[in-house]
Amino acid sequence: MNPMHATTPNTKPNTKVLTPGVIATPPGTIEVPSTAHRLAPWRAVRLLRSVVWHEHLGLSMRGRRIRARVAIAAALAVLGGCLPARVPPTAPPVLVALASHPPLVDDGDPATLAAALRASVAYYARLPRDRVLEIGGERVAVEAMQDALASLAAFVDGRPARDLLARELDRRFRVYGAATTTGVLYTGYYLPTLDARPTRDARFRFPVLGRPPDLISVAPADFAVDCPTGTTIVGRAERGRLVPYPARAEIEASAATAAPVLAWVDDPVALFFLQIQGTGRLLFPDGSRPLVGFAASNGRPYVSVGKLLVDEGRLSLDEASMDGIRRWIAAHPDERERVLHANPRYVFFARLASEPIGSLRVPVTAGRTIATDPAVYPPGVLAFVHMPATTQPPADALSRLVLNQDTGAAIRSPNRVDVFFGEAPDAETRAGRLHTRGDLYVLVPRR
User: Is the Cα dihedral 44, 48, 52, 58 positive or negative?
Assistant: First the structure.
């Protein structure tokens, strides 16, 4: 869903601590002579920025990618791996155990809860059972988390009364909260549907692009064990150098990419928000409704256009929801390109054969899946959303168990959470107007 493919903190080689956001173990590293580590870091950085290979040989695109990856590997080796993250040694844990908390009374459908629980169980089943999660300074084995969620899913299958479920949760789990004084800002995302055409015409002239063949995506952790897993370098080859991929404005304004066109749509703002949502459906005149999802990005940082409009005094904080941004752009069409191009990040898509999936490669569940910062909240964990009715219309207030199964380029702090609303008729409305504060509690199996 949300292209959630985020930077994660360093881990030491040969440990079994699961860094939040890690989906799979890197396929391998490249061994280099130890003398390569003796060069000064500035020379290694220069090497990384100046990777050169012989284009006059007529290499295929695959060959160029291989040479780029080898050059990057050599540069990382010379650098001696990645520089460690600068984290204060006495920094307190972001998640802290709570002595008291609101009643864990779930307001949702038990069937959707059981489905979401089993999706997280499937994620944990792919991991070594002795791997551990770091939560609030504690180490929790993946085996314990998997077993606890599977057992809870079986209990929920019996459709227990809400108060009985709340008591069972207190018996089975300890509760942690984010160490933040401002509360959690909740926003929503959904599965949009865009009218589309297979060929361009005067109305349908905005392309849904697939992954470009010249886009090079490299995981530094594949080449140096001290590099954080989950990070990616994205670029393309240009006159013998690996350079950043073009930004949104350049991609949209010219033939800056050789990306294939999957479809043409008639609404550039809807296409922009499709890229933020990460997954959606295309509705063609023949009635077909293929699902498209994140294939790659141009590697540029995400910039919030809502924050831009707030900083410029065009919107208040309360108005900076997806609906508010849409309304403002509709009222100021001459400003559309300037505002949308302020976000240089561009997302490329691929057709999907299955139901929508999140960053953990498991199905996402409407009303039960959330997206968070993977550097703060461990992947797959059970959590509880508490959104007081006083801060939201009664229909939108949530008091619900959720599973942390997705990430997002805009979700970068302990006090940001995105709630997935699915593709029901009211999903866009609910996701678009959700912009409120509440609390999030993480549930950890008791020992």
Answer: positive
Please compute the mean of the pLDDT values over residues 139-147 and round it to a whole number. 95
Q: Give the residue among 430, 444, 381 at the shortest CA–CA distance from 189.
A: 430
Residues 6+ apart with CB under 8 A from 151: 172
What CATH superfamily is the domain 95-189+358-445? RlpA-like domain (2.40.40.10)
- The 10 Å CB-count burial string (b at 16+, else e) for 208-243 is bbbbbebbbbbbbbbbbbbbbbbbebbbbbeeeebe
Q: What is the model's pTM? A: 0.70
Most trustworthy range by pLDDT among 71-75, 136-140, 255-259, 274-278: 274-278
pLDDT value, residue 41: 36
All CATH 2.40.40.10 domain ranges in the chain, comma separated = 95-189+358-445
Residue 141 to residue 138: CA distance in whole angstroms: 10
Q: What is the mean pLDDT of the chain?
A: 80
CA pseudo-torsion sign 150, 102, 107, 178 = negative
For CATH 2.40.240.50, list the domain ranges present in the chain: 206-219+243-352
